[in-house]
Fold this sequence. Notes:
Largest sheet: 2 strands, parallel
Order of helices and strands: HEHEHH
Oligomer: single chain
Number of helices: 4
Number of strands: 2
Helix content: 40-55%
Mean pLDDT: 88
Structural class: mainly alpha
Amino acid sequence: MTANRPQPLVHLEQAVAEAHRIPGVDTQPGGSAIRKVGVVGAGTMGGGIAMNFANAGIPCVLVEVGAEALERGLGLIRKNYEASAAKGRISQQEVVDRM
């Protein structure tokens, strides 16, 4: 059945099959609209994920283990947005709105 498939694909197929068995979960493409997201970790990856949601206009809650780590992550996000504004890709108001 799965002998020739790479292992990650086997897990994906199993996860999709399990999701179809959960009552009330819409498994069709274009299901529920995302109204708000939460991202755990404000490091490089978490910050980038949070920025992508903010760029799409979706409110995002960023969670970190401590205030210092959260401030560092928010600082990196702000720095990235400021760099985009300096290059003319977004306005200063967009920086404020996304932050």
